[in-house]
Amino acid sequence: MYYYFNILLTIIILIIGTGIAFFIDQFSRMLERVIPVKFLSITIVFILFTLMAAATIMASSMGGWGLMDTAFILSLCFFALGWFTNITKRAGINQASTAAKFITNNQFKYEYESVSSSNKSPYFVASLLFFVLSWGISFWMAYT
C-alpha cells in the first residue's frame, strides 16, 4: 500500500511541477517586452531545468527509487511534455495564420508556418537538455 501511495504522490508532484513549468513558460512571453530575449530565455531554461531536477530528486527520495533510474524515466516524461508543447506552439502559429488568411480573403502578407517557426519553447529546450544529460550520465555510469 505504501508503494502505491508513493507512486500517486510522485504523479501529483509531476502534475504540479508541470503546471508551474507551463506557467513560467507563458509568463516568460510577457517578460520578453521588458528583459532582453536572449538573457530571458537562458534564465527561463535554467529555472525549468532546475525544477525538473528538483522534481526528479523529490520523486526519487519519496519513492525510494535510485536517482539515476528515476531521472532516466522522468526525463522521458518531461521530454514528451516538451515535445507536445513545441508542437502545440507551432500549431497555434499555423492556426492564427490560417484564420488571418481566411478573414482577409488570402490578402494576409506574412505567412507563418510551423516549418519556418524557429523559436523553440523554453520548456522544450529545458526538457531536451534534461533528457540528454540524464540519459548520457545513465549510459556513462552503466558502461564504467
Order of helices and strands: HHHH
Structural class: mainly alpha
Radius of gyration: 19 Å
Stretches with pLDDT under 50, minimum 5 residues: 113-117
Largest beta sheet, briefly? none
How helix-rich are the residues, as a percent range?
A: over 70%
Globular, elongated, flat, extended or rod-shaped: what is the shape? elongated
Q: Average pLDDT across residues?
A: 77
> What's the end-to-end separation, in Å?
36 Å
Oligomer: single chain
Proportion of strand residues: under 5%
Number of DSSP E strands:
0
Tally of separate helices:
4
What tags apply to this protein structure?
144 residues, elongated
Give a verbal description of the structure.
This protein is mainly alpha-helical. 81% of the residues lie in helices and 0% in strands. The chain has 4 helices and no strands. It has helices at 2-31, 37-63, 67-103, 122-143. α2 (37-63) crosses α4. Mean pLDDT is 77; it is low at 113-117.
Secondary-structure topology with pairs:
Layout: H1 2-31, H2 37-63, H3 67-103, H4 122-143
Helix pairs in contact: 1-2, 2-3, 2-4, 3-4
